[in-house]
Amino acid sequence: MAGHSKWKNIQHRKSAQDAKRGKIFTKLIKELTVAARMGGGDADANPRLRVAIANARSSGMPKDNIERAVKKGSGGLEDEQFEEILYEGYGPHNVAVIVEAMTDNRNRTIASVRYAFSKNGGNLGTTNSVQYMFDRIGEIRIGKDVID
């Protein structure tokens, strides 16, 4: 139990909420930055950026954070450089798997992806080892509340 102090109870609840919100904002900022880098900083001409901004606004992200992420992606601010990487491999029972990752450090990401493949009975393939089996048609998003 958090104790009898009202502030302590609020503090425990608030820290958990802030951690969740911060995690969501970090993902949204990465998406905004990559979208602005790939298609430019104009939301009218960049549909991916338009969707990323809509997602950020619906999550309650402040407008200045959104603008800063777009400036960072379009070259206005120099800091970390995020990039999208595509990894291919085979999962358990030779199921073809494509992993899309957004990262600021390729070496760390490849190590994490390789570890996930080997831990679950798969192996990481070379470029275009399984991509020819897939057609990019759309995207499926599953909320965290559905998974369990």
Number of strands: 3
Q: What count of structural domains? A: 2
Strand content: 5-15%
**Low-pLDDT windows of residues:** none
**What's the number of helices?**
4
Topology:
Blueprint lengths: L5 H34 L7 H12 L4 H12 L8 E8 L5 E8 L2 H14 L3 E2 L24
Antiparallel strand pairs: 1-2, 1-3
Please, could you describe this protein's structure?
The protein is globular. It folds into two domains: 6-74, Arc Repressor Mutant, subunit A, CATH 1.10.10; 83-133, YebC, transcriptional regulation domain (Alpha-Beta Plaits), CATH 3.30.70. The chain contains four helices and three strands. With 148 residues, the chain is of the alpha+beta class. The longest helix has 34 residues, at 6-39. A three-stranded antiparallel sheet has the order 2-1-3, sandwiched between helices.
Keyword list:
148 residues; Arc Repressor Mutant, subunit A; Alpha-Beta Plaits
Compact description:
This protein is α+β, with helices and mostly antiparallel strands and 148 residues long. It is built from four helices and three strands; from the N terminus they run H-H-H-E-E-H-E.
